[in-house]
């Protein structure tokens, strides 16, 4: 999704957006303090009945009205000093040694779980905390199937017209709406500066695909890639603070022919680069051969591997095929090697998969890769709806999230067609927050349903402003409502536009409740008993009424 | 969704849209002939490689360039005369007697199945053919779990500014994009004329909720409803040609208290009307008491029951609760009574249901209602995304469709917020075509994947126009692409805007294929064997390369 073409446009038509700041409508930033005094952010939605709901917050200082923003300065390096005095260990190594790091404590508060539980999941490799020591700006977060399902958004630079503000704004915009991590897929000559600007301003972990930058150094000829060029690129990015890196080390020479008769061959850019390299040199790739060395580098920064699925299916026809699962086996081998090195690992997954083949992906991944967090791109549940692939893939994403995928990489409406603009990015993030939350509900995450319940109560009580503010996108919910009933008093009116004032099902339900209240029937059982009595009286006086159809 | 407020707007801002006619871009109407000479429509998508794909077509004569349209005249009454000389039987009765009706023959051709299979599914009650004998304009279609999953779109009149053209256009617009049936939820004084205009111009079955019109006759006071008023309304609508009717006969007096402590009480308008009636009169409703009489009326027109779920959950919290399943049991009883009368039946379902509770709905419905076709409203998989409920519900719809639901009632982005405009209707229909098709793929419908495969091949071969034309919405797919690469030559360019000309994964895959071809390796096995040989040579010369990480 690298923005090779420059016609990015903004909602209001301006060319270079400034940074979006200020709280999301109807809410404000708060901080909870942990036992050891860490300040953990949340977003507080105030309700008109005097109550409030605190929700998980990915937006960083940009939505904190008490913090000034200067993108040339960068945001506050929250974690600076956290690792001082701590041995040079990764989160995985610390967890294995029984140490609860500050990151784990922070995450425990964010997810409302115990620090010990966080530690144990990291120790088991079932969860990762992508926090490069050189990215102190990160607000620690966790990716694992026993935590809230996370969402990643991809961004990329515009080759021609890019400014620091513009690039940073893409990250700010996506995380404002709920992106838990951002992948920077920028290309071109200013790739280093762009990434630097994003990292110094990002409160969420940043992922990259280092092979893209390495390709820049060899004039985009895969055959010219070498271990040395790649290694230096990885070190450069580690030093900058990249938190996780996609590495397509599972594309083996012998797997390449398995793709030749696919409907859509190899669709992963990284995968096809490595396949081309293997074919050109007729040997296994330097990513595979030098994997141990790579582990050593990532370990020293605590950068997390995101083992790429270079042979993922690009169409329904190719889902769950031999090439895909062969590569997954190799990713399993590599997972165990990385863990031996103390490096955190997650596994990337498809792509395009019909619904009935989705669960098998998760089961195999868990089995082969020791339950390393699965991180999937969608998948799209059908190929036939370009322009709506945020929807086709939200269907697959909800399904695979429910089955145990820990992070979902978003897809925008422009997938397969062009470059997403600002509105597309927001639409993609919201669609994926829906998928992730649907999965959280299905998995029975203890607090997930709170927000549904609060919103539904507000809806039922005609507290329109509360309904908007509790929604994933208060601005759009309000705007849609106002198209039909724009007057402010309507926000508290006891009817909605669908049925109008005379004809409202919710009003009739209220009458039912009032009836129960009037007769002193204040519990389900009491109402039931009270009404059954009346019904029985009635039945006794004309019992046939109850069996009118038994001819 | 009755349009009480008149601010419906059109894409181009005009007040009263004329009827949309003309083929969908990149395709044209064709007809296949059945053995007995029935002409069955399909939409032929012509491809640039000389091939074509015929797809199921719901759009009627409006996309047939050889047919003139005059909404005051109505469309050709295709089925006029089909029932002449046939005993006054319903499709269910005919099927049971072993008779393959013309409707079944027509449907068999549409769905590419045998007429005998269609007959047997109807005979078993597992499928319904909603065709009122007074609606000869209907192109016969079938609803059942062993057929393509169908989509319904709701429309409703604008109380103030409505013209015949405007009302007909809503139906034409929704069926153009794939709605298999339309429910007319109009209210107000011109309800009869509006319905007449829709029926005389509709090639798809029309459903209604007669209680809405009955309410108009009693000044919207549920307590004043009577069997006589309701019965006369039903007969009026049967005479006009309504193909299926929602009847909330399962709302029993004793179930009402079960809703009093729900988060969102009763959210079905029909359900709350009947609950209010039961409370006011302290007896079972006339719908339940007079159900047999109602069966007699529907039988004589072959109108299909759509037994309404008046107590469906309106929130995640209320899903699968006692009230919902109690009503479903009653719907099961009523299903068997209707079938004894020879009347076709489908069952309406929720609503709002988290993913893990979806399948239970289908299993219970099938068990209690003798596998009568299930017809669900979404369900929404979460409550927290008003303005995106076409997505929250497409997730639930795909899941419930996969589990066996036969028809999905669409939800638009304006659900819970206001009245859908033209764009919302299209978005809702497309989102539901995605859900239905995803379910068809998951259920292994024999021909469902053809379209995915054709589109993916076109995508991989950079046949951009074919990719657009094969998609559910060619206009939007093309427009999104053209935002980035508007020049016409780009439509056949061997790269796409995501990666640009130098850096394209699909091009690299082509190189892989070329490599295989150059070495005469033309099957997966041959390529595999040929390359394995080379790999083995390589391994023999430096085997450690293959185990670089085994420290």
From TrEMBL, chains A, B:
Residues 7-21 have a biased composition (Polar residues). InterPro entries: ThiC, ThiC-associated_dom, ThiC/Bza_core_dom, ThiC/BzaA/B. Keywords: 4Fe-4S, Iron, Iron-sulfur, Lyase, Metal-binding, S-adenosyl-L-methionine, Thiamine biosynthesis, Zinc. It catalyses: 5-amino-1-(5-phospho-beta-D-ribosyl)imidazole + S-adenosyl-L-methionine = 4-amino-2-methyl-5-(phosphooxymethyl)pyrimidine + CO + 5'-deoxyadenosine + formate + L-methionine + 3 H(+). One of its GO terms (molecular function) is phosphomethylpyrimidine synthase activity. Substrate binds at residues 154, 183, 212, 248, 268-270, 309-312, 348, 375. Binds 1 [4Fe-4S] cluster per subunit. The cluster is coordinated with 3 cysteines and an exchangeable S-adenosyl-L-methionine. Its EC number is 4.1.99.17. Residues 1-37 are annotated as: Disordered. It is an enzyme of class 4 (lyase). It comes from the Bacteria. Its cofactor is [4Fe-4S] cluster. [4Fe-4S] cluster binds at residues 496, 499, 504. PANTHER family: PHOSPHOMETHYLPYRIMIDINE SYNTHASE, CHLOROPLASTIC, THIAMINE BIOSYNTHESIS PROTEIN THIC. This is Phosphomethylpyrimidine synthase. It comes from Actinopolyspora mzabensis.
């Amino acid at each position: 999704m690298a923005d090779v073409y420059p016609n990015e446009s903004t909602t209001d038509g301006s060319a270079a957006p400034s940074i979006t700041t200020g709280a999301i409508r109807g809410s404000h930033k708060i901080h909870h303090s942990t036992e050891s005094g860490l300040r953990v952010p949340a977003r507080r939605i105030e309700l008109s009945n005097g109550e409030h709901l605190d929700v998980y917050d990915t937006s960083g200082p940009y939505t904190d009205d008490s913090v000034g923003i200067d993108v040339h300065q960068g945001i506050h390096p929250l974690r600076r000093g956290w690792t001082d005095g701590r041995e040079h260990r990764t989160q995985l190594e610390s967890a294995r040694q029984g140490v609860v790091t500050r990151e784990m404590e922070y995450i425990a508060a964010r997810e409302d779980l115990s620090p010990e539980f966080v530690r144990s999941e990291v120790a088991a490799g079932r969860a990762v905390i992508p926090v490069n020591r050189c990215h102190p700006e990160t607000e620690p977060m966790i990716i694992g199937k026993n935590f809230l399902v996370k969402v990643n958004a991809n961004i990329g630079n515009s080759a021609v017209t890019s400014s620091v503000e513009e690039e940073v704004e893409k990250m700010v915009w996506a995380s404002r709406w709920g992106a838990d991590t951002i992948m920077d897929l920028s290309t071109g000559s200013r790739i280093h500066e762009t990434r630097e600007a994003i990292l110094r301003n990002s409160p969420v972990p940043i992922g990259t695909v280092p092979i893209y930058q390495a390709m820049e150094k060899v004039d985009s000829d895969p055959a010219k890639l070498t271990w040395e060029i790649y290694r230096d690129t990885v070190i450069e990015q580690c030093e900058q603070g990249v938190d996780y890196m996609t590495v397509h080390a599972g594309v083996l020479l012998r797997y390449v022919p398995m793709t030749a008769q696919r409907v859509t061959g190899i669709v992963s850019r990284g995968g096809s680069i490595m396949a081309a390299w293997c074919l050109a040199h007729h040997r296994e790739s330097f990513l595979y051969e030098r994997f141990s060395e790579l582990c050593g580098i990532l370990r020293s920064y605590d950068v997390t591997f995101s083992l790429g699925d270079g042979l993922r299916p690009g169409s329904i026809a190719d889902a769950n095929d031999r090439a895909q699962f062969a590569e997954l086996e190799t990713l399993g081998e590599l997972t165990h090697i990385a863990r031996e090195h103390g490096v955190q690992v997650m596994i990337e997954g498809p792509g395009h998969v019909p619904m009935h083949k989705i669960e098998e992906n998760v089961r195999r991944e868990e089995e082969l890769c020791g339950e390393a967090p699965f991180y999937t791109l969608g998948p799209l549940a059908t190929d036939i709806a370009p322009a709506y692939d945020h929807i086709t893939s939200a269907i697959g994403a909800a399904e695979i999230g429910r089955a145990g995928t820990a992070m979902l990489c978003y897809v925008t409406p422009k997938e397969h067609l062009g470059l997403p603009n600002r509105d597309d990015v927001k639409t993609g993030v919201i669609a994926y927050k829906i998928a992730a939350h649907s999965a959280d509900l299905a998995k029975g995450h203890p607090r997930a349903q709170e927000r549904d319940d609060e919103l539904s109560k507000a809806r039922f009580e005609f507290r329109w402003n509360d309904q908007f503010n509790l929604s994933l996108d208060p601005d759009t919910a309000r705007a849609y409502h106002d198209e039909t009933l724009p007057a402010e008093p309507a926000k508290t009116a006891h009817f909605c536009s669908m049925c109008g004032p005379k004809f409202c099902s919710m009003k009739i339900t209220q009458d039912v409740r009032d009836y129960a209240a009037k007769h002193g029937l204040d519990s389900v059982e009491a109402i039931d008993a009270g009404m059954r009595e009346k019904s029985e009286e009635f039945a006794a006086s004309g019992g046939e009424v109850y069996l009118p159809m038994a001819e």
